[in-house]
Amino acid sequence: MAREQAVFKHCCYCRTGTAHTELGKICEDHAVTGCDPATGVTGAVLCDGAGSCAYARDGAVSVAEAVLPTLLGMFDRFYEMPEQHAAENLLEEARAAIRRKAGDLGCDVQELACTMLCAALAPDGRYLFFHVGDGLIAAWDPRGGCRILSQYQHMIALNYTTFVTIPDTPYHFGRGTGDIGAFLLTSDGPEQMLSQNGELADRAELLLQAGCLFTRERMMRELNNITDQLQNEGMYDDASFAILGNKHCAGDLFRKLEPDLRSLLFFVPEQSPHRVIDQLGSVFEILADHGGCLSEKAMTRALRTHSDSRTRLKLENLLAAGIIAREDGYYYF
């Protein structure tokens, strides 16, 4: 990917639920994220296969893997289309993938039923999301905070939902520009424990904000840790997450964190003077402006630290915390 187009961070995580493990079943969720190298549009697709279906995982994998490249490649067209046309196109892509897989397996398409959650961000600030079935799509707005964008309303029973294979299925489509710093998509396993009465739990808000700050490796550790916590608290279903974060939001977010939280996450002493916090915040901005990658010598010039060794000393806490990385003479974010 061209460095100037690497505006967004993205990662996904899935784990088999304890109930499935006990039954010897595999994870029936599948999540994918990616970036179009030509446009910088970055997106995520998360699918949860219907547990009652024989080929639940096959359906989830087929749909997610087929829809993501279409979502990225046709983002401009989807953004300009009437809502109904955009929804019909996304659903047809999902259903075509299921028909192909059903043909390979020699089964009915309903045996591959799954939900579908999608989100995409463009470097110019445009975004869109699409949702069929249960699960959660949430967003962090740097100006307005965190909020739920889409959540299935269980009108019949908690275990009743709809799927992309259902004719005329209900869906939720949204788009806009300029006010999304991060997206969080989850399957219904974590959903009920990350939201209550239409509000996000604190740890869901932290996940959204972390999506703008953490490296992929650090984010994967955090998702693993939160899944451990949720399972210890009684979550038994498969768990899947997909996160998109705008690197350009990281500097201000870092500066505004409470000192104790900043110390916990970034190893930055609580009593650090304002000028130190401001300079560290500028590190994120410098890296974001260069696509998340900058040579050590260029960073030294940008921070005016006069030597590469002083630059490493200045950034040692961020490096130790796994927030930025240094490799082969380059800093990565």
Relative helix content: 40-55%
Q: Assign an overall shape.
A: globular
Radius of gyration: 21 Å
Q: What is the string of helix and strand elements?
A: EHEEHHHEEEEEEHEEHHEHHHEHHHEE
Low-confidence stretches: 1-5
Structural class: alpha+beta
State the helix count. 13
Instruction: Tally the beta strands.
Output: 15
The major β-sheet equals: 5 strands, antiparallel
Which oligomeric form is depicted?
single chain
CA(first)-CA(last) distance: 14 Å
Widest beta sheet: strand line-up:
1-12-9-6-7
Strand content: 15-25%
Overall mean pLDDT? 93
How are the SSEs placed, and which strands pair?
Elements lengths: L7 E8 L2 H6 L5 E7 L6 E7 L7 H18 L1 H6 L2 H23 L10 E6 L4 E7 L3 E6 L3 E7 L20 E6 L4 E5 L1 H7 E2 L2 E2 L1 H12 L2 H17 L6 E8 L3 H7 L2 H8 L7 H16 L3 E3 H8 L4 H7 L1 H5 L4 E3 L2 E3 L1
Antiparallel strand pairs: 1-12, 2-3, 3-4, 4-5, 5-8, 6-7, 6-9, 9-12, 10-11, 13-15, 14-15
Helix pairs in contact: 2-4, 6-7, 8-10
Offer a concise description of the structure.
This protein has about 325 residues and is an alpha+beta fold. The chain has 13 helices and 15 strands. The protein has a five-stranded antiparallel β-sheet.
Give the key terms:
alpha+beta; 333 residues; single chain
